[in-house]
Design goal:
Blueprint (H helix, E strand, L loop, with lengths): L12 E5 L3 H18 L6 H6 L11 E7 L6 H4 E9 H7 L19 E10 L6 H17 L2 E11 L7 H10 L15 E2 L11 H7 L2 H8 L3 E2 L3 E4 L4 E9 L5 H12 L2
Parallel strand pairs: 4-5
Antiparallel strand pairs: 1-2, 2-3, 3-4, 5-9, 6-8, 7-9, 8-9
């Protein structure tokens, strides 16, 4: 079957799904380096021992990887970015969605159409360039077209656990981006947190956007919505909002842009 993903490459980089166990392990080791060594997440004993970020969901996911084609033949060297993708069938086999421990996303099991959970997105610090990030986004769009994804969701993370350090950006999200009605998502448990809202008149748009993590900025550009509350993830030294997006709402200009770029890559 012809895949849109076949076209996401240039002379130096390529975006595709991991094909071997070695490539999945390389992606997990990259995740470990970024989430635990760089960002200060707390690993389990087994994760620390193996120096790779893995859990019970990995076997039921597709692993989108960014490859440096000039870095040799060792996956540990050439896998420089990754995205973990789980569809309805994977969640059914796993028994739940990864985000389900933080948000009430199990209701998406009954959504009419294919659903995709996004997670574990990261890029090696030496490759966090506009071209690599753009190619990863193109890869995600290609996957969306390949599998006719109707709804995407996942955890969008802010580094650190003090929500008050992000009052500008979180207030902007609260006033402009909270999902409602059947897409409304709420955090759950003792680590649920309300948005630290300041008056709308006090929001500085420049500051608010600067505070946002790069991935969340990208989600907002295509029209994503967020959960109505926040989840504090102490083990990962971050807090999360749930990102929710119906692909039918993708702006036509973006849809045409991605289709054209992917087909002509």
């Amino acid at each position: 079957m012809t895949s849109y993903l076949d076209n996401i490459k240039n002379e130096k980089f390529e975006i595709r799904l991991a094909k071997t166990e070695e490539e999945v392990i390389a992606a997990q080791k990259l995740r470990y380096k970024i989430f635990f060594e760089e960002d200060g997440a707390i690993p389990s004993e087994q994760v620390k021992l193996e120096e790779r970020d893995f859990d019970e969901f990995d076997p039921f996911c597709d692993h989108l990887i960014a490859i440096d084609k000039t870095a040799g033949d060792n996956p540990a060297d050439y896998v420089i970015g990754t995205y973990r993708l789980m569809r309805k069938d994977g969640a059914k086999k796993a028994g739940k969605w990864y985000s389900q421990s933080e948000f009430n996303v199990e209701k998406f099991n009954d959504y009419n159409g294919e659903v995709l959970e996004l997670g574990r997105a990261c890029v090696h610090k030496d490759y966090r360039t506009k071209i690599v990030m753009q190619m990863l986004w193109n890869g995600l769009a290609a996957y969306m077209f390949d599998f006719d994804i109707k709804l995407m969701f996942g955890c969008g993370s802010f580094l650190g656990t003090d929500v008050n350090q992000y009052k500008q950006s979180l207030s902007y999200l609260y006033y402009n981006c909270v999902a409602v009605d059947e897409l409304a998502v709420e955090a759950r448990g003792k680590d649920k947190c309300e948005y630290p809202v300041i008056p709308k008149s006090e929001i500085d748009g420049v500051v608010a956007f600067k505070e946002l993590p790069t991935m969340i900025k990208g989600y907002l550009r295509i029209g994503c919505k967020v959960s109505n509350t926040i989840f504090i993830d102490w083990n990962f030294n971050c807090f999360d909002v749930c990102i929710i997006f119906e692909t039918k709402n993708l702006k036509q200009s973006y849809l045409e842009h991605y289709e054209k770029k992917i087909k002509n890559a």
